[in-house]
C-alpha cells in the first residue's frame, strides 16, 4: 500500500516537471513573438503619429488577444492568433473608420 502511494506521488512529480518544462518553453516562444509584434507596432505607430493619423487602433488589435489565452491554448501557434496581420503593416489604415 505504501509503495503504491510512493509510486503515484513520484509519477505526479514527474508529470508536473514535464508540464512545467513545456509551459516554460511555450512562455519563451510567446514572449519572443509578442516582443516582435510590439516592435512592429511601435514603428508603425510612430509613423502614424508623425502623419497625424490614429495610432491607437493597432494597440487595440494587439490587446484583443490576452497573454493567458495565448499561453493556455497551446494547440494554436502564436502567429495564428492574429489571422489578419495588417495592424503591424506600416502603411495599413484601420478598416473600421475613416482616419482622415
Task: Describe the structure concisely.
The protein has 100 residues and is mostly helical.
What does this structure look like?
This protein has 3 helices and no strands. It has helices at 2-50, 56-63, 67-72. It has 100 residues and is mainly α. The model is unreliable at 96-100 (pLDDT under 50). The chain has one domain (26-100). The longest helix has 49 residues, at 2-50. Helix 1 packs antiparallel against helix 2.
Q: In DSSP terms, counting alpha (H) and pi (I) runs of 4 or more, how many helices?
A: 3
Shape: rod-shaped
Low-confidence stretches: 96-100
Q: What's the mean pLDDT score?
A: 85
Percent strand equals under 5%
Number of domains: 1
Class based on secondary structure composition and strand pairing: mainly alpha
Residue share in helix: 55-70%
The termini sit apart by: 75 Å
What does the secondary structure layout of this molecule look like, with pairings?
Blueprint: H1 2-50, H2 56-63, H3 67-72
Amino acid at each position: 500500500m505504501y509503495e503504491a502511494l510512493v509510486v503515484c506521488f513520484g509519477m505526479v512529480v514527474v508529470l508536473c516537471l514535464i508540464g512545467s518544462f513545456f509551459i516554460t518553453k511555450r512562455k519563451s516562444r510567446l514572449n519572443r513573438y509578442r516582443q516582435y509584434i510590439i516592435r512592429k507596432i511601435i514603428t508603425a505607430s510612430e509613423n502614424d503619429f508623425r502623419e497625424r493619423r490614429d495610432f491607437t487602433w493597432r494597440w487595440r488589435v494587439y490587446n484583443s488577444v490576452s497573454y493567458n489565452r495565448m499561453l493556455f491554448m497551446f494547440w494554436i501557434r502564436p502567429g495564428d492568433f492574429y489571422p489578419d496581420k495588417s495592424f503591424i503593416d506600416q502603411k495599413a489604415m484601420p478598416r473600421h473608420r475613416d482616419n482622415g
